[in-house]
User: Fold these one by one.
Assistant:
Number 1:
Amino acid sequence: MILAIFFMMVISFMAYAYLGLVPSELRSANRFALDNEGSLVADAGIQDTMAWLRQELDANREPFPSMTSASYTEDRNGTLGDWTWRVHVMCEAQTYPRGGATAGRIYFMRSIASYQGTPVRQVETWVQTGESLARWAWLLDSSVPNLTAFPERFEGPVHVNGSLGLINLTSIYGIGGLPVFKSGVEVSGVNLTPDGVSYDSNPYDAMGNPIPARYNLIYQGGRPGLSTGVAKVEFPNNAAPQAKAAWNNGAFPTTPGVYLNQSATIPGTLGAGVYIVGDVDEMVLAVDGGNNSVMTVTQGANIYSVTEVSDTAITSPGGTVVNVGDTLVVGPGATETVYSGLPNGMVYGTGDINSLYGTNRRKRTIAVDMANDKDIRLTHNLLRADTTPGNPPVGTADTLGLVAQNVRVADFPLAERGNMMFYAAILAGKKGSTGGLLIENTSVTPAAYFKLFGSHVEAYALGKGTVLGGATSYATAAASGYWPRVVYDSQLATDPPPFYPTSGGKCRVISWKEQALVQ
Amino acid sequence: MSSRGFSLLEVLFAIGIIAVGILAVVSAVAFGLRGGQQGARVTEGTAYARRLIDECRSRNLPFVAPLNDGAAARVALDNAPFGGPSGMPANTGMTRNLTMVPLKAAKTGAADDYKADLAEIRVRVYWSEKGVEKSVDMRALHRRT
């Protein structure tokens, strides 16, 4: 009897303990669900704020116009079901409002999700807007219904503002290997297909379910590597900001020639870049023996040379010593002018640049009057001083950007076709136009490839040549024309050429921290 | 010293006491198992709901091919477009109900136009316990990126 009572007590105690444990398991499951809901609600606040911020910035309404402005803040509120969110947003005081020389402005957001008045989850994030368009390996402002997936290869991020259609996929599925797009692909236009892209051989089954083996050969990471229906990346309508950066203040010159503007506040000191009026017959970029940049501009009988004395002092042809940090301009008739200071890297031309080649030294953007359909024509290789020709860039000291309605690749001398290379971030074509990276002679044979070390932004995808049907090797696929092989330079995303166009209010998350608030 | 055994009454009484104890344990175990099962289902349902939301967002479905199951619909988790080898698992014993609603149908030039680039995704995942329908309900805001 006593034993029975003893064991009953032991058993009852165990049952009690067990009963105490069981609800905590259910509680933790419910807590898991609550935490997940809170996470999504806090995220909702961030998404709402990013959409609002983009709208304001695209309409040129900078919500935080000051640079020193931790005091410029905004609070936003909203609901999602039974939950509420509250977002505190402010700008990063060390980044410029839009329009500065440096691409990108950073904003901080803190979002708190609350359930029945109790804070549950918090997200802190930093987002960047006004990113340089040079961050894309390929950015296209129009639709491309029949992009030949072979032999094209894309090594960096790709964005298409129109819709995308891929053809020649049978070759891809048959050959295997690395995906066509080696980084993420965003497409703004949507075809009426399960994933928004059209294919000549579908990577999904009849029900629309993805076939991973096929997707993996098209997109890096398979199906998740593709995003369709995303917001467009705005293209510039003109190169007016670049013109302003090159001249800075006062009325623009109108007589053909090469001009450097003095600072409005410190006479004798350079206040901007290089402004060129009229068509340019030839622009040659070079480096002198002292590692200084020498740009030679030919306009008819007039020849100008601009030497940026950045590394080693020089003596001008007229015998003047030009110190490091100054700029020497030699114009027609051997006229010499020495400016205190170095140009800001912006070179702007009101006319066509009919021949551009050479080796670039110092960060630079060369732009022409895109609004009036002015072009830049590449006639020989375009290299950079800090990089061995043929190698990927290892720094950003000598980055070059080109901005024009068309960037034209001329017929290269036969001897140079085997080793064509351009080191540049190229933007060709104003918004909604048919400008692009243009091969002047798409019938040229033997066909050749040119390597573009940088990025490739164009309004319209122009034909580059013809492709051999049934080719199984990248090296033999082109039958005529010059095919670009873009060797993406990821450094351009964070350190682009000066005054290179940016993406406006489009936001990108650069940091994300999330934590539970209920203890 | 004489010894005597337990009377029948004593034995029956002892058995009764032990039986009560054992019953308590058995019912506690049953309750525990049920609670554990419930917890597991809630966790599982939450994970599926979250995964469905992530799939919808990563594919930008609200702006590409919005899905709206009817209000009373209970659809298998792996129904298109979430099936296939890398899709949602089949035969989970759970069903879904999914809606995607833009916060604003079109831009009108108003200050809240940005809402046209936002859509609410609502996912409910259902399962049955002893004939009673249980569910988890999750919502997210998707931005046209």
Number 2:
Amino acid sequence: MSCSPFDLRDYLFGELAEAERRQMDVHVRSCGGCQEELERLRITQSALLELRDEEVPQRIGFVSDPVFEPSGVRRFWRAF
Amino acid sequence: MILRAVEDTDLIRKARQGDVEAYNLLISRWEKRVYNYLLRIAGDREEALDLSQDVFLKADQNLRKLDDPARFAPWLFRIAHNEAFSAFRRRRPDRDGGASELTADEAAPAPVFPIEHSIAVKAALSKLPEEQREAVILKIYQGFKFDEMAEILSCPVSTVKSRVYAALDVLKLQLAPLKSRGVT
């Protein structure tokens, strides 16, 4: 990984500037070690993304709702 | 994404002028993301829902203090972060920051027998120290940039990056071998 001109994780996350990203594109194409490391990072990211978002079990109170105020539990704890 | 940001900015402008419907629409756009962020760090649906309610109340009360409406997302998640950890401190004074620090070398490899990925992922996340887990949630699940995460967590970008990277080192050992063995 140390042979890479920029951090592979920054590359994976799209955190590099355009010129840096292009430099990494070229490097990764020619470096087996970095290809392998990048693949492991992508597998890790994709495994994590298998935990899907849940739907909100009930809608969040709107400003116009008469009960748009801190929850009962929250008010109780704030009393202390 | 850009269109969405523009529309959010417009809703914020209207909400600041007292347009209740605009703020309601803003809630309906962001409630799922905020709820899932809170659910992943709190680990409890009811608590996540309570916290979400309080986050949107606080956001409504403070919307005029938002300096740059284009930075609404990190601003909203900063409120969510602060609300959550204030609640954790009040409700669970013995909360120790999550799992003890694990280095990549100490992390046990994931089991190779076929279990559902989601269970393996939940287990791997739960073993991370709290700060690293939250950094992964903001980066992987919420897709924030490092500078936005620094804003949300009120810490330097270098700190945010080191948390994400340390977590990835551990998660990679646990999750990458699991997937590459073709366990589905």
